[in-house]
Amino acid sequence: MKELIQKLRKYEIRIRKAITTQMQGDFHSVFKGTGLEFDDVRAYQYGDDVRSIDWNVSAKGHGTFVKTYREEKEQSVFLMLDVSASQTIGTGAQQKIDVGKEICGVLALSAARQQSQIGIICISDKKERYIKPAKGIEQAYTIVKALHELQPVSSRTSLSAGIKLTLDIIKRRSIILLISDFIDVEYEKELAMLARRHDLIVIQLLDVREQKLPGLGIVPVLDKETGHTIWLNTSGDEFKRRYFTQYAENQKKVARICQKYQANYLAIQTNEDYVPQLVNLFRLRNKSSKKSA
């Protein structure tokens, strides 16, 4: 645990130094909001946009009222980590789940130093662990410790169920980082809903072993999520064509949804250094925040 904390702090220092250098000291916060949030209601005035009328309040019979908004100065940060069995694939000692946990730890420590509230939910096809958002370094260490000790109850994936859980828990607009390999089906509607309601950052974890299948002939393949073993001809051209087509289409689908609903998207390989990739992501978010200001 001590070694893990030291490793995460080194990563966090690298991120902060790189950001300071690249942004020439003008990087305010990784976790600043980029839009507007509901503030209050006031009486309707001539010239107000009719689309801003709060019909629920106005229906009470005390006049016509419009919603007012204020700039999101600081939002809660909420981490969503897929801990299903497909995440245990990886090259050498570094699995997708290990990279996902490290990223969550780095962001938790960063949020603590910037006095941002941060929480986490770990999902499979159910809620595996939930820590509600709070501030401070103690909160960051609580998250890191929980991730280190986590032993998922279920091996299956249901992103749609996990997203629905998050939407039920997090009502106020927040910055949400969803970290998963997205090896699942029928989650598109829920992902779009999450992107509409929150400031969404999607990190898709990929592994080289999933992209380079060795031609070993007919071999038994274990599905870690169902526990079933099936026999596949890994040397067959048709099998490889279908597999790689489906793999590429899945990645394009996630990126397409993010682009449509203006969510940030980042694909990270388990065998690559993710720190500079996170730095670039934060830099892009900062630039877009300045343009909208």
Main sheet: strand order: 7-6-3-8-9-12
What's the β-strand tally?
Answer: 12
What is the gyration radius calculated from CA atoms?
Answer: 21 Å
Straight-line N-to-C gap:
41 Å
Largest sheet geometry: 6 strands, mixed
Give the count of helical stretches: 9
Helix content: 40-55%
Strand content: 15-25%
Poorly predicted spans:
23-28
* Dominant shape: globular
Backbone structural class: alpha/beta
> What letter string, H or E per element, gives the SSE order?
HEHEEEEHEEHHEHEHEEHEH
Averaging pLDDT over every residue, what do you get?
81
Q: How would you describe what is shown here?
A:
There is one protein chain. With 293 residues, the chain is an alpha/beta fold. Helices cover 42% and strands 24% of the residues. It has nine helices and twelve strands. The protein has helices spanning 2-22, 55-58, 96-113, 137-149, 159-169, 188-197, 208-211, 237-260, 275-292, and strands spanning 36-43, 65-71, 77-82, 90-91, 94-95, 118-123, 127-134, 175-180, 199-206, 218-222, 229-233, 264-269. The strands form four sheets. Strands 7-6-3-8-9-12 form a six-stranded mixed β-sheet, sandwiched between helices. A two-stranded antiparallel ribbon has the order 1-2. A hairpin with a 2-residue loop joins strand 4 and strand 5. The chain is globular. The relative contact order is 0.14. The model is unreliable at 23-28 (pLDDT under 50).
